[in-house]
Amino acid sequence: GAVVSQHPSWVICKSGTSVKIECRSLDFQATTMFWYRQFPKQSLMLMATSNEGSKATYEQGVEKDKFLINHASLTLSTLTVTSAHPEDSSFYICSALPTGYGYTFGSGTRLTVV
Amino acid sequence: GIQVEQSPPDLILQEGANSTLRCNFSDSVNNLQWFHQNPWGQLINLFYIPSGTKQNGRLSATTVATERYSLLYISSSQTTDSGVYFCAVLYTGGFKTIFGAGTRLFVKA
Questions:
Q1: Which pick of A45, A53, A64, B72 has the fewest CB atoms within 10 Å?
Q2: In the Cβ-directed half-sphere of A13, how many Cα atoms lie within 13 Å?
Q3: Is the CB of residue A98 less than 8 Å from the CB of residue A75?
């Protein structure tokens, strides 16, 4: 149990376009999900906390207008990278905290903006 | 905020060797987890261990919360153990998980 599914696994997009990444809890309900970003050979940095039915909480330095987060249901959170630019290329990972399991992560999305 | 330090930053082992990875943290924690990130980027939860000792096959972990450190033991290492090992903590009174910088492990055949 306690599986988090993330899609797509990888995406290439043109500069200026928007990309949506989905994060689903498959066998549990998640009122809160977390979005991380990881640059090559670096650790994971928390971008924002996604709250079902309310606004996301963004970490300092993260542009909320560029990284739109929607948590419309208890099993789905989405991250939309708007007007993507090459510097947005990164590995994005979501996670949730199912009761009794500790943090569980999705498989990640590798975004390349060309 | 809480500081999480992992050592060593890099480690090269010969297949079959044993190793110990360390995670120090600067404040009280409610939760500590060890993850393995494979070469494809996927994070695998190894241990959920805010205190005490746990074992799972060739891996074991010990957290001494009062002294603010945790250790991950890998015995009889295999090439498939290669990757990055992260320690992540949820500090007391907080709601965010903070990751250490990781230990990059390469196991040679």
A1: A53
A2: 24
A3: no
- Which positions in chain A touch B36 (Cβ < 8 Å)? none
Are A38 and B41 inside 8 Å of each other by CB?
A: yes
> How is residue A9 written in tokens?
């696994």
Residue of A nearest to B99 (CA): A44
B42-74 tens-digit pLDDT: 888 899 999 999 999 999 999 999 999 999 999
How much of chain B is in helix, strand and coil states, percent to nearest 5? Answer: 5, 60, 35
Dist CA B55 CA B103 (whole Å): 20
DSSP state, residue B65 = G
Q: Does B99 touch chain A (CB under 8 A)?
A: yes
Contact flag A110-B41 (C-beta cutoff 8 Å): yes
Per-residue pLDDT of chain A (114 residues; tens, 9 = 90+): 688 999 999 999 999 999 999 999 998 998 899 999 999 889 999 999 998 888 999 999 999 999 999 998 999 999 999 999 999 999 999 999 877 777 889 999 999 999
Give the H/E segment covering residue A54. none
